[in-house]
Design goal:
heterodimer, A: 226 residues, mainly alpha, 79% helix, B: 265 residues, alpha+beta, Heat Shock Protein 90, 2 domains, 64% helix, elongated
């Protein structure tokens, strides 16, 4: 597998993120608060990926953009799930976990892994988001379905499914990334292409989720206003 | 297979990732089926609650009709008979001015009692059916000359059961009463149209119109009692209710009843 394949998959990933972000932006008015936060995640994702490309063009390591994205993504996703659960008990745990991981992400970026790919942050954050998204399924399973919020629930369901599939498929890769690169001395091309393909699949889930979430003109908003 | 530790790592990595991916897909599928099952149960429960509410409503309306029937019968048989006796006795007395006034008062009271009794439960609905009763109601209202209430029926008449007839009669009565009382209509048309497998009852008036009920008003309970009764009866019929503006003024109330099920819901 050549470098071109990785770059091609990266481009497809970038533009699929763009498509999701644009869809979310166009349907912003029809979306509930939690979905709006997710749109912010995708806008950040696209901006950081684009930033990486610009940094590469200027011969600067693109890892700074992805390290920044990882920190912002964690905060936004925890905020999204907090809005969805709307439970005061969860607020404290989310605040503590979010603060600790954000602090760790910044320290890792500035002092530990620096301009290398911040794989420690990626792995830990992905694990936390995976656990949270699995908890969402658990929460959904014991929740009485409501007709009024059916649309937004279905939308969040598909977004959450995309996150669960993407994170389950890439968590081991992120954990083992250091070993693969530094010990196995692998060029990471196959692994990174696989990661990008999973990202594209996740974006398809996100696109469908936002498509059905913003379909109706009027929607009963079960969440707090953003 | 080679004993290279790198190969073991890659195999372990691929197997671990595949297992995690499969588990993720399995969880998503499980949640989809579980949610669908829950949704089905929820719909089933809602349907049961709705059926129960309809049964309660039907029982309440039946009890109301039975009470009306009893009061109408008492008024007609007892009070009406007593007034008639009084009138006959008065006729036997020597004729003077006071007695004439009394006779007139008794006649008016007797007429009022008959009208109230008829409004409560028209005998024609049992004897001659819905359409004759509605026609009679229109004729009776037009008789005083202040309002013109017309009746029309088009299409091939089909059989309705007694419950449906009574519900439709009450709907027509309530709608005409609303047009007279609230819209101050001078011309009202009660129209029955047999269209394929449905019966459409329309009440058209030239009154001042009214603010059509909105879903919010329904939720807030800001409905008038008349409209509430109208909607309940329409729901029991399994019919649909529509309000439109009449041209140039007034309102058209339309009730479309499906005829495929003869039993009211």
């Amino acid at each position: 597998m050549s470098l071109e394949i990785v770059l091609l998959s990266l481009d497809v990933l970038l533009w699929s993120s763009f498509a999701v972000a644009i869809l979310g932006a166009f349907r912003w008015r029809n979306l509930v608060s939690s979905l709006r936060i997710f749109v912010l995640v995708k806008i950040t994702s696209f901006s950081c990926d684009l930033g990486s490309k610009i940094l590469v063009a200027y011969k600067i390591t693109p890892n700074h953009a992805s390290a920044l994205y990882q920190i912002i993504e964690l905060v936004l996703l925890l905020w999204m799930y907090y809005v969805v659960f709307n439970d005061k008990k969860i607020k404290l745990s989310f605040t503590i976990v979010g603060s600790v991981l954000t602090a760790f992400g910044i320290v890792n970026w500035l002092f530990i892994q620096k301009s290398e790919g911040n794989t420690y942050t990626f792995a830990i954050d992905s694990f936390v988001i995976l656990i949270t998204s699995l908890y969402y399924f658990y929460w959904l399973g014991f929740r009485k379905p409501k007709q009024d919020s059916q649309n937004s629930n279905a939308s969040l369901f598909w977004i959450n499914s995309g996150l669960v599939i993407y994170l389950s498929a890439t968590l081991l890769l992120l954990i083992a990334a250091e070993y693969i690169i530094n010990v196995l001395k692998d060029d990471f091309i196959i692994f990174w292409t696989y990661h990008n393909i999973m990202g594209i699949i996740a974006n398809l889930f996100f696109f469908y989720g936002l498509w059905i979430g913003g379909r109706r003109e009027t929607i009963v908003n079960p969440d707090r206003k953003l | 297979m080679t004993d290279n530790p790198d190969t073991y790592f890659v195999l372990l990595f691929v197997a671990g990732t595949a297992v995690m991916l499969l588990m993720a897909v399995a969880i998503v599928l499980f949640v989809i089926f579980h949610q669908k099952k829950m949704m089905k149960e929820e719909v089933k429960q809602q349907r049961m609650e709705l059926d129960y509410q309809k049964k309660m409503l039907k029982a309440a309306l039946e009890s109301q009709e039975s009470e009306r029937k009893r009061v109408a019968k008492d008024l007609h048989d007892d009070v009406g008979m007593m007034l008639m006796t009084l009138r006959v006795n008065l006729n036997d007395q020597t004729n003077n001015g006071v007695l004439e006034e009394l006779r007139q008062l008794v006649d008016e009271t007797h007429e009022s009692v008959r009208r109230i009794s008829w409004d409560l439960m028209p005998t024609t609905i049992d004897n001659f059916g819905l359409f004759q009763s509605v026609q009679e109601m229109c004729d009776r209202l037009s008789r005083n000359g202040k309002v013109q209430v017309t009746y029309s029926e088009t299409g091939q008449r089909q059989t309705l059961d007694k419950d449906q007839e009574l519900l439709l009669y009450r709907i027509a009565q309530e709608s005409v009463s609303n047009a007279l009382k609230h819209a101050h209509a001078l011309k009202i048309e009660v129209r029955f149209e047999w269209i394929d497998d449905s019966l459409k009852l329309s009440i058209l008036d030239d009154g001042v119109g009214f603010d059509f009920p909105t879903p919010h008003a329904k939720i807030d309970g800001r409905h008038g009692l008349g409209l509430y009764n109208l909607e309940n009866r329409v729901a029991l019929l399994g019919a649909s209710l529509a309000f439109e503006k009449n041209d140039p003024t007034g309102t058209i109330v339309s009730i479309t009843t499906p005829l495929s099920t003869h039993e009211p819901h």
